[in-house]
Write a structure and sequence with these properties.
The complex is a heterodimer of chains A (about 120) and B (about 650). Chain A is α/β, with parallel strands linked by helices and about 120 residues long. Helices cover about 45% and strands about 20% of the residues of chain A. Chain A is globular. The radius of gyration of chain B is 41 Å and the shape is elongated. The chains are: A alpha/beta (about 120), B alpha/beta (about 650). At the A-B interface, helix 1 of A face helix 11 and helix 12 of B.
Chain lengths: ~120, ~650
């Protein structure tokens, strides 16, 4: 599975990259919306794991942009924000999963997404 | 003493009722339409005092003699203008001499005492007689019968005491004294108009020690100094005049029999409750005719009606003078300031109500014509009052003002609670913002630790590293939990259940470092092993309370944790023997950022979080504390817990 991790918090991107890699996936990271868009235009990914709030844009803006660009990709959103927002995001078109930060167990997330790709 | 004494009035009902209506004090006089009905209703257990409107014929007297052996007195009313027939052969156990004439009624008090007529009965009898005597009758003469009674009347002392009290209370401004010796000489003294002094003499009295303490107010004069006439006692329409007359008797001097008539004018605003009660005791010796007795009663009634009215109002009301001294106040006021009614007059309103030394900050100036907007003042025990001030239009230049108070403590409390909950909300918002900021780096720490553990867990050489990493992971997880609680995420479904016993044990484990030197006593009702509660919330609550307890105890102390349950609820009680808290501190413990610990050590949020979590668990928290003894926290939860 080819994964794009988008988060402005470097430690998170790095940890996610290592976790996905450890599970046999290939990972690219982006620290902001623009970088993510570059990656999406230049390569193809199975999954994008994107933070909701970033300095230059929000995760759902990237999702919307990708939809407009007709880029086919599964999306998992991460957020440190409130339950209410998480519920809203879960019902947003194009978003498959929403994870609340901090993750209690990063590997269970990886496994969760991996399983989804199998089905 | 024979208590079974009846005063019987024999005569027409109309007279009885009209008199009863006017004097309102006749409960002790029984009415009989005629002598026959008196005789036929006579119960031999009673001794009777007969007051008869009807002429007592010889036949009637014979019948009384036959049928009523227990007769104390027979009194005849002035219509008959005659005394008891001299050949009346009734032998009462004691006679009370009752002489009625146009200008005097004489009662032998000593004999009355001997005949064991209780004072209330004597009062009734006397007032009845007054009412029946002619309107010109101004004086009551109470004669002590020196030959028959060796001592003063039993009730003399009481009356003297009442008199002294009355003098003090009323601040009598006019006193008349009449002295009559046994030989019939009458002397009189009338005080001057200087109301600051009351001058009179009580001669030959050995039982007037009660007056001693009023010496500074009473200057003793010699009877011989008095020579003005008695007539002036008073006819001023609005003056309240009380006239007392006593006979005193000295055991040593046979000529010391003396009448006293004391008349006072009270202030114009009527009698106080206490004066009324004294006046009622003294009623029979008001030296006034029916008209005036009635008049006084009328005023007493009116005054009582008004005082009842004001006392029935549940809001405090007071009248103050220009010095903010209370002239009068109602019962609610007395309650509000926690003083007895009699202690109020003369005290400053602000000192009573607010314990201030100067007038309340927001009180209207005395010259203010009154306002519909109340001022707010503080009372004792954090009570708050609105006060409306209305000037009294007396026409005189003495400024008086009515203060009408309304206790707004409850409203004030609600407003304070509202402010507090808004402050709580602000704190909550702040915590949310901070928590989110921390969440991102925390995610990095936790996730990286997990990645590293995953990398090294299969490598047997790195087992120590994995342990270290696991330590980082668990600390990060605990931070996460704390933040979740701070964020109010206690309602998330992840909060798994644990039993109360488990919860307490794990909370103690968490607090181990702070409880190191503490003697811990744990007592959990075994029934609680089957009662469950959301784990992390419960742990957090206990952890915070235990932390506070250990801070209060310092190096060493004793912490008792007990848990009891009944069908509907269970209670966890944590008692420490630490330094405790003052009442003021106790009131603030649920205030955000209130801390007793040194700056930088306590967050001032522990108990705020506890309260919040307890509320979420539909529980309640109660904290009792006393300085130097310790603090007890009681946490009560419903047995079937549901997260709200």
């Amino acid at each position: 599975m080819k994964v794009l991790v988008v988060d402005d918090e470097a430690s998170i991107s790095r940890a996610l990259k290592r976790a996905f890699t450890a599970c046999g996936h290939s990972v690219k990271t982006a620290a902001c919306g623009e970088e993510a868009k570059d990656h999406l235009l230049n390569s193809s990914f199975d999954l994008m794991m994107v933070d909701l709030i970033m300095p230059d844009c929000t995760g759902d803006q990237i999702v919307q942009w990708a939809t407009e660009q007709k880029i086919q990709i599964r999306v998992a959103m991460m957020t440190a924000y409130l339950d209410k927002q998480i519920d809203e995001l879960r019902h947003t078109h194009g978003i498959e999963k929403v994870y609340r930060k901090p993750f209690k167990d990063i590997f269970s997330i990886v496994a969760d997404l991996d399983q989804k790709s199998g089905t | 003493m024979n208590e079974s004494m009846e005063i019987s009035f024999v005569g027409d009902r109309a007279t009885y009722e009209s008199v009863q209506e006017k004097t309102q004090s006749f409960s002790a006089v029984t009415h009989y339409p005629n002598i026959n009905s008196l005789i036929s209703n006579y119960n031999s257990q009673y001794r009777v005092v007969i007051v008869s409107q009807e002429k007592l014929t010889r036949k009637a007297i014979r019948r009384i003699k036959e049928r009523m052996p227990n007769i104390a007195i027979v009194a005849l009313l002035n219509k008959q203008r005659s005394s008891i027939p001299s050949d009346l052969e009734i032998r009462p156990s004691a006679y009370i001499d009752l002489n009625l004439s146009n200008d005097a009624i004489q009662i032998n008090l000593a004999a009355a005492a001997k005949a064991s007529i209780r004072q209330s009965r004597l009062n009734s009898l006397t007032s009845f007689l007054f009412s029946q005597s002619s309107a010109t009758c101004e004086t009551l003469r109470i004669i002590s019968d020196a030959t028959k009674a060796a001592t003063l009347p039993a009730n003399f002392h009481d009356m003297t005491k009442s008199l002294a009290l009355l003098l003090q209370r009323i601040g009598a401004d006019k006193v008349s004294l009449v002295f009559t010796t046994e030989t019939g000489q009458t002397m009189c003294y009338e005080s001057n108009d200087d109301s600051s002094r009351i001058d009179f003499e009580i001669s030959g009295a050995r039982d007037i020690s009660a007056l001693d303490k009023f010496k500074d107010k009473l200057t003793l004069l010699h009877a011989n100094d008095c020579d003005s006439p008695i007539k002036t006692i008073s006819s001023t329409p609005w003056a309240h005049v009380l006239v007392f007359k006593y006979v005193l008797q000295s055991p040593n001097r046979s000529d010391s029999q003396t009448f006293y008539i004391l008349g006072y004018r009270s202030s114009l605003d009527g009698f106080t409750e206490q004066e009324v009660s004294i006046a009622e005791i003294m009623h029979p010796i008001f030296g006034l005719g029916l008209e005036k007795v009635g008049f006084i009663n009328y005023n007493l009634t009116a005054s009582r009606d008004w005082s009842n009215t004001f006392d029935s109002i549940s809001e405090p009301i007071s009248i103050i003078n220009k010095n903010y001294e209370i002239i009068r106040a109602n019962k609610a006021f007395a309650r509000a300031v926690g003083k007895r009614m009699l202690k109020l007059p003369g005290r400053k309103c602000y000192s009573l109500l607010s314990q201030r030394r100067s007038k309340c900050q927001h009180c209207l100036p005395l010259s203010h014509p009154g306002s519909s907007i109340p001022a707010q003042v503080s009372g004792r025990r954090n009570q708050k009052f609105y006060v409306w001030a209305y000037p009294i239009k007396t026409g005189s230049k003495d400024i008086q003002r009515i203060h009408f108070y309304r206790n707004i403590s409850v409203e004030h409390q609600l407003a304070t609670t509202l402010i507090r909950s808004e402050r709580m909300k602000a704190v909550g918002d702040l915590l949310t913002a901070i928590s989110h900021e921390i969440n991102n780096p925390l995610t990095g720490i936790l996730a990286t630790a997990q990645v590293l553990i995953n990398e090294h867990k299969s490598n047997s050489h790195s087992s120590e590293l994995v342990e270290d990493l696991s330590e980082i992971e668990s600390s990060a997880l605990r931070s996460l939990e704390i933040i979740e609680n701070l964020l109010g995420f206690g309602n998330n479904s992840d909060d798994s259940l644990c039993t109360v016993s488990e919860g307490i044990e794990s909370a103690i484990k968490f607090s181990k470092s702070s409880l190191r030197a503490v003697d811990l006593k744990l007592r959990v009702n075994p029934a609680l092993q089957s009662v469950t509660i959301p784990k992390s919330s419960f742990q957090q609550i206990l952890f915070n309370v235990i932390t506070n307890a250990s801070n209060a105890m310092g190096e060493k102390g004793c912490l008792e944790i007990s848990a009891e349950s009944d069908i509907k609820s269970f209670e966890v009680r944590l008692s420490d023997n630490g330094k405790g808290m003052t009442k003021e501190t106790l009131e603030q413990i649920f205030e955000p950022f209130f801390t007793q610990r040194n700056k930088g050590k306590g967050t001032g949020l522990g108990m705020v979080i506890v309260k919040d979590l307890v509320t979420r668990l539909n529980g309640s928290i109660k904290v009792d504390s006393s300085v130097g003894k310790g603090t007890t926290v009681r946490l009560k939860f419903p047995a079937a817990l549901e997260m709200s």
